[in-house]
Amino acid sequence: MKARLVVFPIKGKIWCFSRSIDQSASAFNSANTPSTVKELWKKISSNSKPLNANAELLVDFISNKMNNAWVGLEKAPEGSFKNKLHGFGLQLLARVKPSEILLKSISKEVTNVRITYPPSLNSRLVRRRLRHIAMRGTVIHRKYFYGSVTLLPLTTALAVLPLPNIPFFWVLFRTYSHWRALQGSEKLLELVSDYSRAQNPSAEMMEASKELEELLRKGYENGSVNEKAISDICIQFKLNKIDVLKWRDLV
Asked: From which residue to which does any coiled coil extend (predicted)?
């Protein structure tokens, strides 16, 4: 599976690193994830793959259930408890760093990446910054993954309260998120490393885009890229605007 990463300066010395939305990848993951406990058990019991592969299948199943529950909250009537719960969840999600979102988007199925960047940037520096994000991610998300795992038993105990166990579900989500980001960090580091390029030159392709450069030139004002230019870039390169804005608002 191929992944397209778009890199460009968005505010001062801050760069944006975002993956283009790939609908086919989402459809592939959904089709290969069991939707019921019966299907999950059937796949695991008939699976000759190693234990870690079955663990990933279980994690994907839980993630799918969490996503469906989140969609249910999103569709809840205005002013209802579920609707307020969804709003609270959005506030928590706003705190997730954009680098984590990028790393989570690099799944194990990705075999090569195409890095699109404006010609004004040095290609070696672009690759170096990507490697830095990946290397830093392997350290940070491994640490927070183990930290989140240790909190799960404590938050599980709150189930005795006559209220939704929001802390448990939040910690469960953060555990999953850090685990995915860790996996993505290791995969991205593998794809953009010098060794990987030497072994498999097609694993990475640098693409200087004059179109991206022009959109940035028109929209750069007061030290950052304005929102109209960001919208145009997101449309042209199929990026998630909310994720891109997180880079611009990064402190």
From this structure: none
Name the burial class of residue 244, with classes exposed (0-12), middle (13-18) and buried (19+) by CB atoms within 10 angstroms of its CB: buried
- DSSP bridge partners of 114: 4, 205
Q: What is the CA radius of gyration of the chain?
A: 20
Residue given tokens 């249910």 in the structure block:
72
DSSP of 135-182, one letter per residue? HHHHHHHHHHHHHHHHHHHHHHGGGGSSS--HHHHHHHHHHHHHHHHH
Tens of pLDDT along the chain (251 residues)?
A: 889 999 999 998 999 999 998 765 554 455 556 566 566 556 656 655 554 555 565 566 666 666 666 566 667 787 776 777 667 677 777 788 999 999 999 988 898 899 999 999 999 999 999 999 999 999 999 999 999 999 988 888 776 666 667 788 888 888 888 999 999 999 999 998 865 555 666 666 899 999 999 999 999 888 899 999 999 999 999 999 989 999 998 86
Determine the residue type at 40: L
Interatomic CA distance for residues 227 and 248, integer angstroms:
10
Give the Cα separation of 50 and 164 in Å (integer). 35
Q: Against a cut of 0.90, is the pTM above it?
A: no
Any idea of the CA torsion for 231, 236, 240, 242, to the nearest 10 degrees? -10
**Which run of H or E residues covers position 246?**
helix 241-248
What are the boundaries of each domain within the chain? 2-248
Q: Which of 127, 140, 108 is nearest to 25 (CA)?
A: 108
